[in-house]
Amino acid sequence: MSAMAIALIAPLLIQAASAADAPSASQAEAKAEATLRQMTPQEKTILTIGIMPLPIGPNAPKPPAEAIPGAGYIAGLPRLNVPSLRETDASLGVSYVFGLRKDGATALPSGLSMASTWNSTLIEEGGRMIGSEARAKGFNVLLAGGANLMRDPRNGRNFEYLGEDPLLAGTLAGHAIRGVQSNHIIATIKHFALNGQETGRKFVDSLITPAAAHESDLLAFKLGIEIGNPGSVMCAYNKVNGENACANSWLLNDVLKKEWGYKGFVMSDWGAVPNLDAALKGLDQQSGSELDKAAYFGDALAKAGRSSRAYARRIDDMNKRILWAIYDNDLDTNPATPGGTIDFAANAEVARKVAEQGIVLLRNTKGILPLAASAKNIAVIGGYADTGVLSGAGSSQVQGEGGPSVSVPLGGTSPWAVFFSQSFHKSNPLAAIRALAPKADIRFRDGRYIAEAVAQAKAADVAIVFATQWSTEGLDQPDLSLPNGQDALIAAVADANPNTIVVLETGGPVLMPWLEKTAAVIEAWYPGAKGGEAIAAALFGKINPSGRLPITFPASVDTLPRKAIDGFADLEPDFAGDPPTPDAKLTTNYNIEGSDLGYRWNAREGHKALFPFGYGLSYTSFDSKNLVTDGKTATFSVSNTGKVAGATVAQLYLVSRAGNPKLRLVGFQRVELEAGASTSISLSIDPRLLADWRNGKWVLPDAEYVFAIGDNAERLGAKVSVRLEGQRWVAR
Ligand code: BGC
Has residue 567 got a pLDDT over 70? Predict the structure, then answer.
């Protein structure tokens, strides 16, 4: 064998060897049982409770020396070689915890940017990358895996999640988790479940039928768990049908553990445990216990175990589950230690790829984009584009080495005020634009004064307005406008110069009252560590935009299931989301839309979106045709009919069932094609996407099913009808 061949094969051999060395799920179970047998009653309480190893507040206990400042620490059992759990946030990279640790990390773009790639392989690479940084910093649990569906476009945490569709979000969450855990660390999937708003997040009660939940949010979690096999599930702050999600026997015992056979452990969200009883309802570990009213697990649990067989049984089960996750991910044999090396340059390239593939070209008239490198006069306006790119805030906030390029605090004196700061990553769009148009006269104006921006726009050939909509964990948005007068700024600039291009850095969808005045619009989301470069590359055609919306951009808030976020008008903005009085009640009725989120709601109600789910333009054109399907698999061809190479996302939708309209994404694949090239796509259709959940079973009616390829959820091609025989099956 040649040296070259050995070099090519060697990584495969190493991979195969480490896969063979990794314990199988059942080996991990046997090992967990063996350890459990050796544990004393006192030892059995240690893994069930954690602290926040951060010097926050005057009463913060001094964390043990081996704890790393981060989200959580759970002591281990050195006698039995069970490692402590050292936890950090979150889905977009290793979080910065307000600079308390001082070390930076590589920021992936927001979840919605990731979801706009529709690229499972790339998202897995992203997970692998952030997991490797967590490991290099000594963490063995990365609290990544945000998988809540967008039920309201005003939810402040939409940017952390993967959109509105269970197939897309669940698939991508699963791949992200798989990537994280490939580093021999545990990932979680969160926030289980139906955590659809931040307003009153610790007491809002999400009402939903089991059927609607199974066909939407729970399906996203189920797919994420099947693909990613996360060691842990993080239960949510909110209530579901009257019970706290972290003490909800239906969610945790019945659905997650019995119906799905989940073997890992349920960790609480921080400050989400209502009582000791949560242990019997399915919670396995109390995280960040200082944030709860009491340390319910640990000693209190041991006491309960001494007098109650139900508690004693649960204590064993809790330990077995936590140990299973530890062993299934080799935490004991492959320990993460601080001080590992991180190749920030290589990791930034992963972030750049995600940002590039996540950019969605929403509008491009008069062929204004891509801009020619020979452009002469460009006005760049607003959005701190001379400084960096926006990021979302809260526990998931990542900062690069040295912190943000600029951080704009929102003020306030509450202990949570530190969270409320708009931080920009050091990736400067203006510098990146200058690098790609070296001969152009490029002027920047910050956009604070409309008249000044207008004067610059008038004097330029092209005006590029950067608009930002910051969002954070702990707060929702009142509406879908751009804050701080940016809608008026864009309208005025576009009136002054018809060649106005708008670049959006938003946490979720926004309205665009100025849309028709503009020449082009790009949605860049929060584009991460290399976002400025990615935006410039899209503007100048160094890359061909290929992102597709993972959410619906509604035409107006009047078309949403709720006119406002429940409680928004009455509650004071409060990061913690605690009830204002002990008996305060707040409900949000998800039975309004049921499982018909976003595009499905619009289809059901006959609303047209501003931009539909699945939508995105390109600098080339594509044609998809010749759909053949038997309802289980589908094949069709996709061609690049334009003049440049590009990528599109082949999307397959169920359109109707038994003569009734029923719109649903049932398959997708991102395809890269050279100009003039064609390829054949083959997708398998998960029957759960065609079925209903009825009385504890998936039920596929004996009926006619109609499918179509879609450019997006509102632009569907020729229909193909198939008769499928009825079936019933259980969830596993
Ligand atoms: C968030 C979680 C996070 C945890 C730990 C909570 O406020 O909801 O997503 O993992 O804090 O920081």
Answer: yes
Q: How does the average pLDDT of the chain come out, rounded?
A: 94
Domain-embedded: residue 598: no
Residue by residue, DSSP assigns 114-140 as HHHHT-HHHHHHHHHHHHHHHHHBT-S
Q: What is the CATH number of the domain that holds 508?
A: 3.40.50.1700
* 8 A C-beta contact, residue 503 and residue 467: yes
Give per-residue pLDDT as tens, 365-417. 999 999 987 789 999 999 999 999 999 999 999 999 989 999 999 988 887 78
Instruction: Take atom 4 of ligand 1 and give the residue whose Cα is closest.
Output: 270
pLDDT in tens, 288-305: 999 999 999 999 999 999
- The residue nearest atom 5 of ligand 1, judged by CA position, is 71
92, 148, 268, 269: residue to mutate for ligand 1 pocket, most atoms within 8 A of CB: 269
Same domain (yes/no): 652, 531: no
**Is any ligand 1 atom within 6 A of the Cβ of residue 87?**
no
Instruction: Determine which residue's CA is closest to atom 3 belonging to ligand 1.
Output: 395
The pLDDT of residue 57 is 63
- Domain of residue 685 covers 620-729
541 Cα–ligand 1 center, Å = 38
Indicate if the pLDDT at residue 184 is higher than 90.
Answer: yes
| Bridge partners, 668 (sequence order) | 651
Ligand 1, closest atom to CA 394?
A: 7
pTM, whole model, 2 decimals?
Answer: 0.96
What average pLDDT does range 38-63 have in this prediction? 88
Interval between CA 109 and ligand 1 midpoint (Å): 18
Asked if residue 363 and residue 272 are part of one domain, the reply reads no
- What is the Å distance from ligand 1's center to 269 Cα? 6
Probe target for ligand 1 pocket from 68, 73, 89, with the most ligand atoms within 8 Å of CB: 89
Enumerate residues 6+ apart whose C-beta is below 8 A from 545: 359, 360, 361, 522, 538, 616, 617, 618, 619
Residue nearest to atom 2 of ligand 1 (CA): 269
What is the C-alpha separation between 310 and 306, in angstroms, rounded? 10
Residue 341 inside a domain? The answer is: no
* 296-338 residue pLDDT tens: 999 999 999 999 999 999 999 999 999 999 999 999 999 999 9
Q: Whose CA is nearest to atom 11 of ligand 1?
A: 270
Percent of the chain with pLDDT over 90: 90
d(CA 264, CA 76): 17
Cα 270 to averaged position of ligand 1 atoms, centre (Å): 6
User: Same domain for 210 and 253?
Assistant: yes
Instruction: Indicate which atom in ligand 1 lies nearest the CA of residue 236.
Output: 8
The pLDDT of residue 688 is 97
CB 17 within 8 A of CB 256: no
Cα separations (Å) of 384 from 9, 156, 408, 466, 493? 47, 21, 10, 8, 17
271 Cα to the center of ligand 1, angstroms: 9
Residue 331 near ligand 1, beta carbon < 6 Å? no
* CA–CA distance, 224 with 123 (Å, rounded to integer): 13
